[in-house]
């Protein structure tokens, strides 16, 4: 998507939201790239002695170097942040100014305005019931925040139960059985950490009572049942045992807890406002209803924010069957003004990040991720360099390798999940919905006196009586997590003053519409004046001195001259002026006709 810039409006230029996250990503990239280079040089030094001794350091070095390069690329890509005038995306499918139609998304917005309320999905499941009881205002938060909180709350419960289960199993099981259970708990912890982040498009999974019961049964019966499956076989020493599993579970609980606190820092703290300003009126007019929408579009264009076109979500123009004498019609326009960023985000520094409530826990989460990365590269470095001692493979170091891999995954969890919250953007915009419904009847209007006037007009008129006009106005606050992600409406404030102003403007426009066809050009008015002079002279011949004078008047009027008659003196006699509306003779000092009130032609 292109970046649109306007030098006259800087409201769309605000500090880089990824500034602090970029610092952590570049720091993590340095850690992995330095560790990867060290392993590559180590592989080079032992390659001439033994290929097997160089294989593991070589592979891990390439992997660390690649992941460090990935973190560096992401950090450098967001060093400069652009937010164009054409962002964020609309609340529903958008239409161009020439398109007609509506969508299901537009229907949802109209229903929200009509109901004068915001709609929220109800939480489901027993575990979510606990969560929403502890944090009752969480339901008013964006859908992404709700799903993230639900998933991490369930993960926290799973890890707590798993940790308790592991502790019970360690205390009540034989050492060999405990090591087998430790392998299971390590796999379970990594599987949970590798789960993708909650998305607003995906419904979060409920933990459920059944899963809790399974974990409790494993803790109690696992030490007794597991020997039947292992046949008392010795647990592999090169796999992570119970001690490493417990440590991994504790570290994962810390990471999940930090992310959960970061999510809670961005939830809605109190019930939002939810109201719309609506006015309606009953109007009558004698014109095509489409003219009303032409004026509406002109008026809305004059109020564009920073000269940026409104987002059109619904545009339905009245469709009249002109081959029928009467019928009904309806039309509507639903638009949103350009969302303007709420510039509450300051140009943060690393120290100020830990002082702001909304970003404090995000900074702590990324710091914990850096710590996990440091532990991971140290353990994996020891594993790669000590696995083969030149004579044989020491399998005891495999435990360090798996544990280091667990820390790597845990650090990646902190960085990936924190990125979603760093990507939050808040906006303010206005929703405008205008709806008309009415009945019409075709009529014909003749203007002019049949026996006296030479010029008459006729017009087929669309007569509309008691048309219903409704106008909704609401200022909304929206948020999104990512420039190209769907927005969520946080609150809605009524703008009844703006709705009333728009309704009065449209009502005034309707009253100003003329139902009489009349010429407006200066040339047409001049020629009509001449014709009226001829008509008046022909109908009142006594007012002329003689037939020759009438002929002169007719000739002069026909050629639209400015006749003058030279007397014995130097003064000029002007031809009498007549009203263009009724033909009444006007004096030079008159500006309007005393009979019909028509303005005298110049």
Tell me what the structure shows.
By secondary structure, this protein is α+β, with helices and mostly antiparallel strands. Among the domains are: 278-337 and 429-472 and 493-511; 522-586, no CATH class. It is 48% helix and 15% strand. The protein has 15 helices and 11 strands. Strands 1, 2, 3, 4, 5, 6 and 7 form a 7-stranded antiparallel β-sheet that branches. The radius of gyration is 41 Å and the shape is elongated. Residues 198-203 and 544-573 have low confidence and may be disordered.
Q: Would you spell out the secondary-structure blueprint of this structure?
A:
Elements: H1 19-47, H2 51-77, H3 104-115, H4 126-134, H5 143-172, H6 175-193, H7 208-230, H8 242-264, E1 277-286, H9 289-302, E2 311-316, E3 326-336, E4 340-341, H10 350-353, H11 360-386, H12 398-422, E5 424-447, E6 457-481, E7 488-494, H13 496-511, H14 522-539, H15 547-558, E8 565-566, E9 572-573, E10 577-578, E11 585-586
Antiparallel strand pairs: 1-6, 2-3, 3-5, 4-5, 5-6, 6-7, 8-9, 10-11
